[in-house]
Amino acid sequence: MLIAHGPLGYLIAYATQRYWQPLVAKPQHKLVFWAAAIGGIFPDIDLLYFYFIDSTISHRQLLTHSFLIYGVLLVLGLLWLRLIPYVKTSAVCLVLFTVGAISHVCADMLIGMAIGLSPLSNVMFGLISISWYRDSI
User: Fold this and answer.
1) How confident is the model at residue 60 (pLDDT cuts 50, 70, 90)?
2) What separation in angstroms does the CA of 69 have from each of 9, 93, 128, 130, 133?
3) What are the pLDDT digits (tens) for 32-56?
């Protein structure tokens, strides 16, 4: 969780800094990197539910592993960035937090399966669900 997903969020912030750096004051750049790294880790907050409340289902079947929630947050962050010009740092942090969380779900789908479209669908998606890949393992 911390070893894989946090650095992935950080690397996304690093790779996209030419887009957000002009919007954020230099002393606040570390805050943006932290937001992206925490966003990369955030979907695994459902492990608390898994370990302490109900361990009968995979934590990847819970709402925090859904693209829909992060899609809504991403749209809100981009609207905030566009419509409210004087709070750029907070909007950039929200956008990169969300992109970090989306990267987490995508990475989970590379090595396993996640719910993806919850609450609209309970279907698990992932590379393993693709028949040619599943049959080659």
Assistant:
1) confident
2) 17, 16, 23, 24, 28
3) 999 999 999 999 999 999 899 988 8
**How far is the CA of 71 from the CAs of 27, 84, 99, 117, in angstroms?**
29, 20, 9, 10
Number of Cβ within a 10 Å radius of residue 130: 11
Token readout for 59 is: 């934590």
71-119 confidence digits (pLDDT tens): 999 999 999 999 987 889 999 999 999 999 999 999 988 888 888 888 8
Structure tokens at 55: 């361990």
Query: How far apart (Å, rounded) are the C-alpha atoms in residues 75 and 82?
Result: 10
User: Helix-strand-coil percent breakdown of the chain, rounded to 5?
Assistant: 75, 5, 25
The Cα 53–Cα 34 span in angstroms is: 29
